[in-house]
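Bug #77: duplicate submission created two jobs. Keeping one. Sequence:
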Amino acid sequence: QVQLVESGGGLVQPGGSLRLSCAASGRTFSSYVMGWFRRAPGREREFVTTIVWSGGAYYADSVKGRFTISRDNAKNTVYLQMNSLKPEDTAAYYCAARKLSPDYSVNYYNAVKYDYWGQGTQVTVSS
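Kept job's structure:
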């Protein structure tokens, strides 16, 4: 069982930055793939980024070059550094975890494959 707790959301102006954190419980954190998803009002949940234990990551095209995911396995924490924020980045951001599987490279973006979820943290980009 893994419990996830996000923090770091808030209100930021367009072009600004925020860093989200996700603290995970459990002694096997390093064995889990960690991901971030988001859901904007009236929209479907969408994939943002994901990272394996070694640091290899995938990004959605909409955030590539602006967002960076990282993890500290010693602290059981994954981070999402968000730069050059846009109003369309406004959403509730969710941390998620899954076990690495042979088909990970073809379904890393699929929320259904993630077993554990945090409660979410709100990010609002507005002037």
